[in-house]
């Protein structure tokens, strides 16, 4: 009983840390969505010079742990490039890089879900590539893109916990610090896990509602963006 | 200012430890795959159970572990063991955390396999005079395997990638090798390249094996 009471004092800093976790993962998702859009346009361009690098990028992030990428940005990049990289910058870079690989596949599926005939119809009425993307393909592909994006956000939010390993004090690192200040035990880590659960589960329920609303047609993708 | 030069020479003395680290990663991944499949099978059956509390329990398990970070679960398992009086090595508590986390994903994969076979097919089998074993062997299993084959292959790769997080609780796997060798030699870029290549080779071997076996097993798919 005493142990749980003592932990309550730390709750304000725990909630501040939860805010940092949400900010870090949200920022990474936005950067990842922009990167994913560029890579998806490269993959669907039909030019090998563009589509092969994009494919390689996606495959690399499917076969290397995100922790290794994070170590590269935090320890390796400063040595190679001779610049200073903060823990926050390294974590944002690693998570955005992973998010963009995941988003590429989702956005590509969205673009490909729009039938070939619509492309031809739009182009035969004199629309440019940019116009077709903006007015014809874009709006329709959002149906396929949005629901899995919610799951990618949840994945990135959970993954942002690895920022604690390089010393960025977000939710997980805060839990570890409190544990030390509080003389060991594991109760605080249980509380941290429950906080992650509440946030992620709420987002996934909202995502489920969104998906039902948009009545996603078979896109050939699982909800987590894998094939 | 930039005086970086690429050199692998400093890494050479550490390659012996890399070999051990690869074995640790493989052992952790294989043990997790076996145990999480077992856990997943139990919970997949529980989720189909007629008893509501059992169903609820299984659903709560799946939703909790799918919505919490693996790293937090690993720390939780690591710090909990001594408090509840269990003496476990980092590898063992890592395996507990990995199994709990990936068991939830396995449950969902196996459940999708189980519900892929409509009940009418069991009745059809019985009406043809087939025994339960024959129905399982000739009707149910082929369809279940076909349904879970691709997601299971993806999951194997996710488990190998996820096992890198056990380095945070002092398991000496490839990710831990990269960090200790990097800080010993200050050759972070070279150790990063080696670790990345080792992981990529492990994952691509599994991926290609999955694709080739898949083509042999299900020639009519794609």
Automatic annotation (TrEMBL), chain A:
<keyword id="KW-0813">Transport</keyword>
<dbReference type="GO" id="GO:0022857">
    <property type="term" value="F:transmembrane transporter activity"/>
</dbReference>
<feature type="transmembrane region" description="Helical">
    <location>
        <begin position="81"/>
        <end position="103"/>
    </location>
</feature>
<feature type="transmembrane region" description="Helical">
    <location>
        <begin position="20"/>
        <end position="42"/>
    </location>
</feature>
<feature type="domain" description="ABC transmembrane type-1">
    <location>
        <begin position="18"/>
        <end position="207"/>
    </location>
</feature>
<protein>
    <submittedName>
        <fullName>Amino acid ABC transporter permease</fullName>
    </submittedName>
</protein>
<dbReference type="InterPro" id="IPR000515">
    <property type="entry name" value="MetI-like"/>
</dbReference>
<dbReference type="GO" id="GO:0006865">
    <property type="term" value="P:amino acid transport"/>
</dbReference>
<dbReference type="GO" id="GO:0043190">
    <property type="term" value="C:ATP-binding cassette (ABC) transporter complex"/>
</dbReference>
<feature type="transmembrane region" description="Helical">
    <location>
        <begin position="184"/>
        <end position="206"/>
    </location>
</feature>
<comment type="similarity">
    <text>Belongs to the binding-protein-dependent transport system permease family. HisMQ subfamily.</text>
</comment>
<keyword id="KW-0472">Membrane</keyword>
<dbReference type="InterPro" id="IPR043429">
    <property type="entry name" value="ArtM/GltK/GlnP/TcyL/YhdX-like"/>
</dbReference>
<keyword id="KW-1133">Transmembrane helix</keyword>
<dbReference type="Pfam" id="PF00528">
    <property type="entry name" value="BPD_transp_1"/>
</dbReference>
<dbReference type="InterPro" id="IPR035906">
    <property type="entry name" value="MetI-like_sf"/>
</dbReference>
<dbReference type="InterPro" id="IPR010065">
    <property type="entry name" value="AA_ABC_transptr_permease_3TM"/>
</dbReference>
<feature type="transmembrane region" description="Helical">
    <location>
        <begin position="161"/>
        <end position="178"/>
    </location>
</feature>
<keyword id="KW-1003">Cell membrane</keyword>
<keyword id="KW-0812">Transmembrane</keyword>
<feature type="transmembrane region" description="Helical">
    <location>
        <begin position="54"/>
        <end position="75"/>
    </location>
</feature>
Automatic annotation (TrEMBL), chain B:
<keyword id="KW-0472">Membrane</keyword>
<dbReference type="GO" id="GO:0022857">
    <property type="term" value="F:transmembrane transporter activity"/>
</dbReference>
<dbReference type="GO" id="GO:0006865">
    <property type="term" value="P:amino acid transport"/>
</dbReference>
<dbReference type="InterPro" id="IPR010065">
    <property type="entry name" value="AA_ABC_transptr_permease_3TM"/>
</dbReference>
<protein>
    <submittedName>
        <fullName>Amino acid ABC transporter permease</fullName>
    </submittedName>
</protein>
<dbReference type="InterPro" id="IPR035906">
    <property type="entry name" value="MetI-like_sf"/>
</dbReference>
<feature type="transmembrane region" description="Helical">
    <location>
        <begin position="20"/>
        <end position="46"/>
    </location>
</feature>
<keyword id="KW-1133">Transmembrane helix</keyword>
<dbReference type="InterPro" id="IPR000515">
    <property type="entry name" value="MetI-like"/>
</dbReference>
<feature type="domain" description="ABC transmembrane type-1">
    <location>
        <begin position="22"/>
        <end position="210"/>
    </location>
</feature>
<dbReference type="Pfam" id="PF00528">
    <property type="entry name" value="BPD_transp_1"/>
</dbReference>
<keyword id="KW-0813">Transport</keyword>
<dbReference type="InterPro" id="IPR043429">
    <property type="entry name" value="ArtM/GltK/GlnP/TcyL/YhdX-like"/>
</dbReference>
<feature type="transmembrane region" description="Helical">
    <location>
        <begin position="192"/>
        <end position="213"/>
    </location>
</feature>
<keyword id="KW-0812">Transmembrane</keyword>
<feature type="transmembrane region" description="Helical">
    <location>
        <begin position="67"/>
        <end position="88"/>
    </location>
</feature>
<keyword id="KW-1003">Cell membrane</keyword>
<dbReference type="GO" id="GO:0043190">
    <property type="term" value="C:ATP-binding cassette (ABC) transporter complex"/>
</dbReference>
<comment type="similarity">
    <text>Belongs to the binding-protein-dependent transport system permease family. HisMQ subfamily.</text>
</comment>
């Amino acid at each position: 009983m005493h142990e749980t009471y003592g932990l309550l004092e730390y709750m304000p800093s725990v909630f501040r840390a939860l805010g940092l976790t949400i900010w870090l993962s949200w920022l990474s998702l936005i950067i990842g969505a922009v990167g994913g859009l560029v890579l998806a346009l490269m993959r669907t361009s039909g030019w090998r010079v563009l589509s092969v690098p994009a494919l390689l990028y996606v495959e690399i992030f499917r076969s290397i742990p995100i922790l290794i990428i994070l170590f590269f940005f935090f320890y390796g990049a400063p040595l190679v490039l001779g610049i200073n990289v903060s823990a926050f910058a390294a974590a944002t870079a690693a998570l955005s890089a992973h998010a963009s690989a995941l988003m590429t596949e989702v956005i590509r599926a969205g673009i490909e879900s729009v039938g070939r005939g619509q492309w031809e119809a739009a182009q035969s009425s004199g629309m440019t590539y940019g116009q077709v993307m903006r007015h014809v393909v874009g709006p329709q592909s959002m149906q396929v893109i949005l629901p899995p994006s919610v799951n990618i956000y949840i994945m990135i939010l959970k993954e942002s916990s690895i920022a604690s390993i390089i010393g960025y004090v977000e939710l997980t690192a805060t839990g570890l610090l409190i544990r030390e200040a509080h003389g060991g035990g594991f109760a605080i880590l249980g509380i941290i896990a429950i906080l992650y659960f509440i946030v992620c589960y709420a987002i996934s329920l909202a995502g489920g509602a969104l998906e039902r609303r948009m009545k996603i047609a078979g896109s050939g993708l699982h909800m987590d963006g894998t094939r | 200012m930039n005086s970086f030069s690429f050199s692998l020479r400093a890494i050479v003395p550490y390659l012996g430890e890399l070999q051990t680290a690869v074995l640790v990663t493989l052992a952790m991944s294989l043990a997790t795959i076996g145990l999480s499949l077992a856990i997943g099978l139990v919970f997949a059956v529980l989720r189909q159970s007629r008893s509501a509390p059992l169903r609820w329990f299984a659903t709560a398990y799946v939703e909790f572990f799918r919505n919490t970070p693996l790293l937090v679960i690993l720390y939780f398992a690591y710090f909990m063991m001594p408090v509840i009086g269990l003496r476990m090595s980092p590898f063992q508590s890592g395996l507990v955390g990995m199994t709990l986390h990936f068991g939830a994903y396995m449950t969902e994969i196996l459940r999708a396999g189980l519900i892929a076979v409509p009940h009418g097919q069991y009745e059809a089998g019985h009406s043809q005079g087939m025994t339960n074993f024959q129905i399982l062997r000739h009707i149910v299993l082929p369809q279940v395997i076909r349904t879970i084959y691709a997601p299971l292959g993806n999951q194997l790769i996710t488990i190998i990638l996820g096992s890198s997080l056990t380095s945070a609780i002092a398991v000496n796997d490839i990710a831990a090798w990269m960090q200790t060798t990097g800080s010993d030699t200050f050759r972070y870029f070279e150790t990063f390249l080696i670790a990345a290549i080792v992981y990529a080779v492990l994952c691509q071997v599994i991926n290609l094996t999955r694709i080739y076996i898949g083509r042999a097993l299900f020639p009519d798919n794609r």
